[in-house]
Amino acid sequence: MIGRRNQSSARGRVVLAGYDAVSRARQPRGAGLEGMRSPSERRIFLALAVFAACFSLVGARLIELAIVGGDRGARGAAADVADPIHRPDIVDRNGEIMATDIVTASLFADGRAIVDPQDTARQLATVLPDLNPEAVAAKLETGRAFIWLKRDLTPKQQYAVHYLGLPGLGFRREQRRVYPNGHNASHVLGTVDLDNHGTSGIERYIDKVDLLGKGGSGGERSAPIALSIDMRAQFALRNELENGLAEFKAKAAVGIIMDVHTGEVVALSSLPDFDPNDPMLVTDEARFNRATLGVYELGSVFKAVTLASALDSGKVRMTSRLDATQPIRYARFTIHDFHAENRWLTLPEVFMYSSNIGTAKVALELGTDAYREYLRRFGLLSRPQIELPEAGEPLLPPRWSELSTITVSYGQGIAVTPIQVVAALAGIVNGGTKVTPTFMRQTNPQPGPRLISSETSRDMQALLRLVVTDGTGKKADVPGYPVMGKTGTAEKAVAGGYARHRLISSFLSAFPANDPRYAMLIMFDEPQGSKATYGYATAGWNAAPVTARVVKRVAPLLGLPPMVTPQPNDMIHEAKLVSYEPGNGNAGD
Q1: Alpha-carbon gap, residue 413 to 356, rounded angstroms
Q2: Which end of the chain has the lower number of beta carbons within 10 A, N or C?
Q3: Is residue 300 annotated as part of the catalytic site, yes or no?
Q4: CA of 146: how far to CAs of 69, 73, 108, 502, in Å?
Q5: Interacting residues of 526 by C-beta distance below 8 A, sequence separation 6+
Q6: Which of 197, 226, 255 is where one domain is finished?
Q7: Domain for residue 247, yes or no?
Q8: Do the strands 328-330 and 321-324 form a parallel or antiparallel pair, or are they unpaired?
Q9: How confident is the model over 151-194, as pLDDT tens digits?
Q10: Residue 75 and residue 564: Cα distance in Å, rounded?
Q11: Is residue 241 domain-shared with residue 215, that is, in the same domain?
């Protein structure tokens, strides 16, 4: 019994030993190096693992180089810089390019790859002499991953830098805004910054109303933006204004030409101006847009609005007569005429002789509340609604009294922008409908609301023409292109009163007088008298003749046919009949 038990036990141990061997054979070796029975197996496993890791790293790097290229540091740093802004072209009303983008290269450095900052800076200065070697070296020594060194390189400059073969330098493709016409229309176009963002003028307007479209950042270029400007007229206006500025030694000058039916600004110049291709060199004085942002007391040109309002109200008529025998004394103020007639004047005479006394009495006949309402309708009491961000807020009397009505009637005590006055005249001579100034070309213009009656508009056309034929604006007339208008000479407001010898002279006009198509303002800031003007610095001697020069040049460009023979105007004839009396003196300003 004992022998059998021992024999059975032995067989059991053999069976169990066999089962244990099978179990070990089936156990997975992924349990680690401990599962290997010999050191050689472990060494082989480690070698395979190292080779697999190395091949994985090499493969990943090859894939990266194939997809994104080399120089991860510089590319990673450049990725932090925004993509260039693609701006749409700006063209004039005839399709001529006024502003466009060109592709340029800008130089940057990866400070981590610069071997010798001092030597790199020195060599760069040999091909880019406007760089300061010390300043460049200081930037490179910071070791930053991305450092701008110079924007907008020319192809020649880019080649010269590339030829140096300096490590750590690279070029970035950028867009640069260029203005082929230089100074012309600079205040209309405005400027952009180094990153091609609009900072003023129409360029700022494009960003503000999001006209960049799909081309804004890295996309295809948007459709051109067509302005109302005619570059032919723009060049002629600026050229004549520049000549007048030098001739009369004025501090500044303004010129505006506007379509009287659509409000489109055909030409606008404010001198001094600037070259938008070099925005960093623009002075504050040159940047200031006097045509739309500056506000001025323009003097007697305001009388056109006063008389149009009074005639439209029915409170006065063309045959009305007003007492101008004595100056008006109101409290401590005295209102007098520049060239006093010292007699009763008809309404045409009040306008033709530019009588402050007569105009003040016309405004009093109209009444303060009614007068203010007309000024509001003409758009003279609020900021002009134009595309340019440079739009000035009028300066109005702090408390509108009867005295305010008197002084405002002849353009004193109220300061407005020149573009507002041109728009007001356009509404007066176009048949009596309001126009809104615009710098965008209009393809389907709609007539504005009525300002004054068509009869009043015809009366005002006659009065404005009479100023040129027989009044203060004789030097503004052009053979073949009859001009109508109003002179204005105002003393500049200073602390405590007005500076008698510091004048704003202007001529507000429309042409051709037989069928008004364009309104225009020529204005000079502090013009000086000369031997040719007999010492006078008033508008009849400077702004009026410059108006004639501009009309003579731009009228043919704008497609206006000249009048071969003068055509009679019954309204002007009637105005003369009620104006002329024996003994009338010469017109003043």
Answers
A1: 13
A2: N
A3: yes
A4: 17, 9, 7, 54
A5: 250, 251, 252, 492, 502, 503, 504
A6: 226
A7: yes
A8: unpaired
A9: 888 889 999 998 899 999 999 888 889 999 999 999 999 999 98
A10: 70
A11: no
State the virtual CA torsion across 307, 310, 316, 320 in degrees, nearest 10.
-10
Buried/exposed code over 156-169 (b: 16+ C-beta within 10 A; e: otherwise): ebbeebeeeebebb
Residues 154 and 250 in one domain: no
**Among the three residues 201, 226, 251, which one is the final residue of a domain in this structure?**
226
378, two tokens? 């003409």
Range of the domain at 353: 234-579
Quick one: average pLDDT of 181-208? 95
Residue 586 token pair? 């010469």
d(CA 230, CA 185): 10
Catalytic residue from among 200, 300, 320, 457 = 300
Q: 213 in a domain, yes or no?
A: yes
Q: What is the Cα–Cα distance from 453 to 2, expressed in whole angstroms?
A: 142
pLDDT at 220: 60
Q: 381 Cβ partners below 8 Å, 6+ apart?
A: 372, 375, 394, 396
CATH of the domain at 336: 3.40.710.10
Give residue 575's Cα distance to chain centre: 42
- Give the residue-averaged pLDDT of 52-81: 57
Residue type, 339: H
- Distance in angstroms (rounded) separating the CA atoms of residues 406 and 335: 9
Residue pair 82/218 in contact (Cβ under 8 Å)? The answer is: no
DSSP code of 75?
Answer: H
**Beta strands 90-91; 225-226: pairing state:** parallel
Residues 339 and 380 in one domain: yes
